[in-house]
Amino acid sequence: MELKEIAACEYSDITEVYQGIFLLEKSGKQAILQDKEGCPEIVVPFDKYDFISYLGNYFFKVKKNETYQLLDKNFIEKGVKANNMKFLQENLFAFQTPAKWVLFDLVSNKYLHNNGFDSIETTELPEVFIVKNNDLYGLIDHLGEITLPVEYDLIKYLNNGYFLIKNTSTYIGLVKIS
User: How far is CA 66 from the centre of its chain?
Assistant: First the structure.
């Protein structure tokens, strides 16, 4: 049996985010280490960003000077800058501009709903998102199209495709999306 040191015992945390890619932490800073067939290399150094976190689907959220950016699986900045961001599903992210959250599709490299929303939340349905604007709720799909107008006091995802929809003080029932 042969043992090979990939990363020295000098880090406060090491997390494997996907095969052969590790997020290292030391003194409150993060770096990305790539191990290709036993040849480790720090591909994103500790001093490059103020913060690094793994979003999913081979993408990282990085922060520098109070602005977030997206790194792809080759550790290249995607050119999108925002106040915050979150992974929604494969190639679909929500970015927070100064006032609104907008959907961004990495395949088409474009924003899907230019007006934006106060918030965008996921459900267990991969193509349906709950949005909020001016204290009213609605539903949009993965293409940014409004599927239920933003005019309800509350939309709550239950499970199995069921949504509870409340208008003023009366529950108007359930909506099922399949």
Answer: 17
